[in-house]
Amino acid sequence: MAEELADMMDAIKDEIKAYMELSGAEELSVGPHKVRWAVINSSRFDSAAFKKTHADLYGQYCTESSTRRFTVA
């Protein structure tokens, strides 16, 4: 039963995300709750390249990536 509920919750989340994507919204207010699905940017350190060079060159080997975070509060 827990797996079935988890599947239902995932389906509802996907519907909300699709609606937010279509409307271009990163945040929705639903009664006392807020739903956020925002792009999160982060930088990742390339340790393989770092090992081949020097610590003072850290900035040259930083790569940026983006993800989206979905929260309901």
Describe this structure in words.
This protein is an alpha+beta fold and 73 residues long. The chain has one domain. The chain is 38% helix and 38% strand. The chain has a three-stranded antiparallel sheet, with no helix packed on it. The protein is elongated. The model has no long low-confidence stretch (mean pLDDT 90).
Give the SSE map.
Elements: H1 2-23, E1 27-30, E2 33-45, H2 47-52, E3 62-72
Antiparallel strand pairs: 1-2, 2-3
Summarize the structure.
This protein is of the alpha+beta class and 73 residues long.
Kindly name the structural category. alpha+beta
How many strands in all?
A: 3
Spatial separation of the terminal alpha carbons: 25 Å
**Which residues sit in consecutive blocks of at least 5 with pLDDT less than 50?**
none
| Total domains | 1
- Biggest β-sheet description: 3 strands, antiparallel
What distinguishing features does this structure have?
three-stranded antiparallel beta sheet; 73 residues; alpha+beta; 38% helix; 2 helices
